[in-house]
């Protein structure tokens, strides 16, 4: 199906998912909003497209990237405790191992948005782990995961339209978001405040 951008309305169109399958999704045919990052940034347009696809402010996704990786596409962080407690010996990840993922790959956060390998697999990226080095994939998976967490916590975070608790969950999981929603302190709340403050700073410097 084709978009009708001259009408300025959302339309139903066919897209390719990260797994290579086609799907139908309502999309906004208008050009993506600009992100408050330098024009020469190689992945700027990819960030803007990922933000548009998932209904995020480009400035919010740009702030998350700044906090998570400082804009480094090659940034990785291995989480040994996560590997020991949730990956190693767990049959849930048998298909990922068969596709070439090591337990260490699954317990590593990748690139611009620092999405963990296990999260990427759960979000539908079933290609080889080397695919996590692509900036477009890092941004797509990060935007998709943040959107899902915002939607999950929207009704308990009405003041921030789900963004604050969504960021808490992005960093610390849904358990952290539940703790904050219940009024308990959690380190991931400081992460969320840092991202929101970074977004404000980026927009102010534009």
Explain what you see.
This protein is mostly helical and 206 residues long. The chain has helices at residues 44-53, 58-69, 80-87, 94-98, 103-106, 117-122, 135-153, 163-172, 174-181, 187-205, and strands spanning 11-16, 22-27, 76-78, 108-110, 115-116. Helix 8 crosses helix 9 (174-181) and helix 8 crosses helix 10 (187-205). The longest helix is centred in the last third of the chain and has 19 residues, at 135-153.
Q: Return Rg in Å.
A: 17 Å
Shape summary: globular
Q: What is the number of E strands?
A: 5
Strand content: 5-15%
How are the strands ordered across the major sheet? 3-4-5
What structural class do helix, strand and pairing data support?
Answer: mainly alpha
Low-pLDDT runs = 1-25
What is the distance, rounded to the nearest whole angstrom, between the alpha carbons of the first and last residues?
37 Å
For the residues shown, what is the average pLDDT? Answer: 88
- Please summarize the sheet with the most strands: 3 strands, antiparallel
Q: Roughly how much helix do the residues carry, as a percent range?
A: 40-55%
- Count of separate DSSP helical elements: 10
- N to C succession of SSEs: EEHHEHHHEEHHHHH
């Amino acid at each position: 199906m084709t978009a009708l951008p001259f009408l300025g309305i959302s339309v139903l169109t066919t897209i390719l998912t990260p797994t290579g399958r086609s799907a139908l999704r309502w999309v906004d045919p208008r050009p993506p909003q600009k992100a408050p990052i330098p024009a020469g940034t190689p992945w700027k347009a990819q960030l803007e497209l990922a933000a548009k696809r998932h209904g995020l402010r480009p400035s919010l996704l740009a702030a998350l990237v700044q906090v998570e990786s400082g804009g480094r596409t090659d940034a990785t962080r291995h989480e040994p405790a996560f590997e020991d407690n949730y990956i190693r010996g767990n049959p849930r990840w048998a298909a990922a191992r068969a596709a070439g993922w090591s337990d260490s790959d699954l317990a590593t956060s990748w690139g611009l948005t620092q999405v963990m390998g296990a999260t990427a697999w759960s979000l539908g990226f079933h290609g080889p782990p080397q695919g996590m080095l692509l900036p477009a994939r890092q941004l797509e998976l990060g935007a998709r995961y943040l959107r899902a967490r915002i939607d999950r916590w929207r009704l308990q975070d009405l003041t921030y339209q789900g963004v604050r608790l969504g960021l808490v969950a992005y960093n610390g999981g849904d358990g952290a978001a539940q703790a904050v929603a219940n009024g308990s302190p959690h380190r991931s709340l400081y992460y969320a405040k840092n991202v929101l403050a970074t977004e404000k700073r980026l927009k102010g410097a534009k």
